[in-house]
Amino acid sequence: KLARHPKQAHWWHATLRVTPRGFGTRTIPVPGGAFEIDLDVHDLRLVVSDSEGRREGFDLAGTSIAEVYRRTMETLDGMGLATEIVAHPYDNPHSEIPFAGDETHGDWDPDAIRRWWRSMLFVDRAFRTFAGRSFMRTSPVQLFWHSFDIAVTRFTGRRSPAFGEGGRRSDVEAYSHEVISFGYWPGDPEVRFPAFYSYTAPEPDGLADRPLRPETAWWQELPASHMALLKYDDVRAAADPYGTLLDFMRAAEEAGMDALGLEPDPPVETAPLWAELDERFPATRGAETT
């Protein structure tokens, strides 16, 4: 997507999406058409589809990263979609081996993969709901391939004062404006459990003094900032997991906005439009409408 998709602000064009069958790139434009790549967790296959109606793919079970990389590039080449890429992990704490030579990683656990995907499907829905509850500029719900976290970000509209100067280009552009970001990831060497998170960047003074909800959420001090954390298991065990997650996000948003000296937007009404149409036009009840 970095090589083929038209550039968008904050690298939004480069991220992946949760799909009804797994994870995917969504549409990638190319001259004269488009294509997409999907990792199908139900059939455990990688599939390339294009606007010419072609679908090519291969089974993932029993394959190493090196074989997945080789067969993916062969599939793209055979469909006339060959793309030159930088083929190694990016900012990944688990491996620095270039894909073409990675014979180390090749264990596929279909049950674990599907359970992880189902948790992401739940989060994707909640994040989309949260994204629609404000008129603030908000990113799409995105899956970041390097740390495999799903995230959504609010933008205050104010530029960040020299944030990230001297850092990597990706970081400088990603944080060019004040953000309050929210995400979910499987954990890492420092956080050894799946969790929801939120941070405000650049971090304002007193952020970690603001309250969070639910009571099981806490502020984690990191080398350069604080992060609000809530364990996935605590959400899963709640009487209303969906409502608990949305409340955590709202509390973290309120903390960030308050610390930045801004007033949070009142939540936007998200009732289905059909309810309003049904009330205004009762004669359409049960009829096929567009």
Topology:
Blueprint (H helix, E strand, L loop, with lengths): L16 E3 L2 E3 L3 E3 L2 E8 L4 E6 L4 E5 L5 H14 L31 H22 L5 E2 L3 E3 L4 E11 L9 H6 L2 E9 L9 E7 L16 E4 L4 E6 H6 L3 H19 L13 H8 L10
Antiparallel strand pairs: 1-2, 2-4, 3-4, 4-5, 5-6, 7-9, 8-9, 9-10, 10-11, 11-13, 12-13
Q: How would you describe this protein?
A:
Helices cover 26% and strands 24% of the residues. It is built from six helices and 13 strands. A hairpin with a 4-residue loop joins strand 5 (45-50) and strand 6 (55-59). The mean pLDDT is 89. The two termini are 34 Å apart. Strands 7, 8, 9, 10, 11, 12 and 13 form a seven-stranded antiparallel beta sheet that branches. Strands 1, 2, 3, 4, 5 and 6 form a six-stranded antiparallel beta sheet that branches. The protein is of the alpha+beta class and 290 residues long. The longest helix has 22 residues, at 110-131.
* Overall 3D form: globular
Percent strand equals 15-25%
Average pLDDT score: 89
What's the helix-strand series?
Answer: EEEEEEHHEEEHEEEEHHH
Give the radius of gyration: 21 Å
Tally of DSSP β-strands: 13
Number of helices: 6
Q: What ranges have pLDDT less than 50 throughout 5 or more consecutive residues? A: none
The end-to-end span amounts to 34 Å
Classify the secondary structure makeup into a structural class.
Answer: alpha+beta
- The proportion of residues forming helix, as a percent range, comes to 25-40%
Largest sheet: 7 strands, antiparallel
